[in-house]
Amino acid sequence: MIESSNEKTGTKRHVSTDTREHIKDTLLLMLKTSHFRTIRITALCREAHIARGTFYLYYNTIDDLLEDIINDSLQLINSMTPKEKQGSLKKLQIMLNQTGDEELPKDSSLFPPCHKYLELEKYRFLVKDADVAPIIAQKIHQYESPKIVPVLMKELNMKQDEAELLFKFIVNGSSSVNRSLLELKENEWYRLQKKILQFILGGLKCDQWS
Amino acid sequence: MIESSNEKTGTKRHVSTDTREHIKDTLLLMLKTSHFRTIRITALCREAHIARGTFYLYYNTIDDLLEDIINDSLQLINSMTPKEKQGSLKKLQIMLNQTGDEELPKDSSLFPPCHKYLELEKYRFLVKDADVAPIIAQKIHQYESPKIVPVLMKELNMKQDEAELLFKFIVNGSSSVNRSLLELKENEWYRLQKKILQFILGGLKCDQWS
């Protein structure tokens, strides 16, 4: 058996990715009906038909397991997102201005990660859980900050602490409205999402970016 | 003894405002060193030198007591804030544009409630507590929404649900950065606060308001 530690998440690694995926899928299934903070490892193992010791081969705590799931979802978002922030935000603003209020966007790959979360069929419902949503926001902030902060500093002539704080404001604001948008039909969701995006891009003065 | 119920907060009312104030001050004092969720009624009564029964003359739960304290802080903010939103946001934008980055604002009464919270000497430290901060944000949202939503609808030509969601975004975004600003010196705090306010007012296109 090969075991190693994943430094980024603090979770343990193991050769059997099948069991690992099975544990993740079991928690995701349980989260559809239970609050995260009420789920105990014992109940998870019962549900997954695994021994408690098996759980500990992969994770130290249930929080580690959740973090692993959220990292998966962010990797998925990452694969759907253009690498270059500066150009994509300008393109997003142009696209929003060109689509009518009730029309769906032509290319939602330009949406920022917080706004794209609701498109992930497998993970979107996670934003409903009041204890999970802030962790997702914090992770998005952590992943995206090194990419967006330098752009904000350059385009808005900001100091680093100012750009970091502004980005924190945007991620947490976006995260707080996601729950309200979750249950809406696609066109309603887009009508509201668009107003939020237009507010953000207007505040960032994207139309004046280089 | 006269007792009645305060419908708004669900708390009990009583003739002795002194005892009520004493209970509130005791919780505020305890919150300087303890997390809200770890404070029990028994410990609060011990600290306040009152009988447990006395506590229940005024409040049903410790959450009721916290709500009463937050309501006090919002009343204080309300007394410091111009009633008319539309004009005051335009005035705020003009003032921000006229003050240098390291300069303190001439009239911080124009600041929106979330941003003004840090000026309340007695209550500002409350935003540090991760369980209390969202309750403050929710209360500010509830108090301010009826005043600001109609203005956003009119000035940005928005539907009610759009204006409500945007205002939720702004309140929660502001609330999330308050904690980072809490420990800063006055001029540093203002430099960062100003960038956030300029982003918000830019996103709201305040310079085009009627």
TrEMBL record, chains A, B:
It comes from Veillonella ratti. This is HTH tetR-type domain-containing protein. SUPFAM superfamilies: Homeodomain-like. Residues 17-77 form the HTH tetR-type domain. Keywords: DNA-binding. Residues 40-59 bind DNA. One of its GO terms (molecular function) is DNA binding. InterPro entries: Homeodomain-like_sf, HTH_TetR.
